Amino acid sequence: MKQTAPALPTFDIVDAASFGYQLAWAERQYLVRLATVPVLVSIVCQLIVTLLGWETNYLRQALVMLPSYFAEGWMVCHMVRLVFLGQRWPFIPSGDPVRDETALDDRAYGIFAGTLVYVLIKMIASALLAFSSMFQMSDEMETLVESGGNPPAALLVMQIVIVIVGIWAFRFLWVHIGVAAGYRIRTYFRAVHGLGVSVQMLGVSLLCFFPFFVVLLFITMGLVSGYHQQNVPVPFSTKFMVIALQVCGGAAITLINTAAIAQGFGKLVDIYLRKNPSA
Asked: At 19, is the secondary structure helix, strand, or coil?
């Protein structure tokens, strides 16, 4: 009898993205309270990066943004706990000391471990961005391409390889979701194995990202385009408004995207654990 290959893990991209938007809207008041401190920390850190002119220096930028990574990781892990366990911040005691202590220990471990993994992912991503920038075209190379010349084949091949590897490794960016939810890292990787899952996660992220990106792009262009047309420096007050809008929009995207990916991961890990009860 012919054996069929086991079905690859999968989840519905549109359903996951819809879940993220719906949950964010339903919990909007709670999420505003949750995101207030991380957003303020991120604005301060981003202002420092802008004033120092380190927007394209990814390693130095990562060091300055480190406090915001911890604050954002804390926020993201609470969002994960909300999706998986219905837990909200701050913790409300039940009145049973033993039960409360156990619940606090479990929550603290998930939040602490998930935040550390989140920060580690951010730092690794910054290092990879700094590395990939080494393969960007120089000014001379861009001039050559614009004049009709062809860039070196090795450069094009390296850029294609970076894109393919980036898509394949996209699922690695969400390890903190499994950790914050209380799963082992091994369980996370076994539940989301395969290039197909990375493509699905990328699709979910694009659905969560593009609507906000388009709106923010039009707003920021409207704020700074006049200064660029007149060839005058953008005032600090305008830069502050742009940074604040970008940070607030980024926080909204992060929360929605986290909820969407968490919902998809929840389905994948449920399938994996039903097939492997002892895992």
From this structure: helix
Rounded to the nearest angstrom, the gap between the alpha carbon of residue 253 and the centroid of all alpha carbons in its chain is 8
Burial class (CB in 10 A: 0-12, 13-18, 19+), 166: middle
Contact criterion met (CB below 8 Å) for 172 and 121: yes
Both tokens of residue 55?
């927007």
State pLDDT tens for residues 31-55: 999 999 999 999 999 999 988 988 8
What's the mean per-residue pLDDT of the chain? 86
Full-model pTM: 0.87
Which of 123, 42, 110, 39 is CA-nearest to residue 80? 110
Cα maximum dimension of the chain: 76
d(CA 111, CA 98): 20
Measured CA to CA, the distance from residue 196 to residue 202 in angstroms comes to 10
Cis peptide bond prior to 277, omega within 30° of 0: no
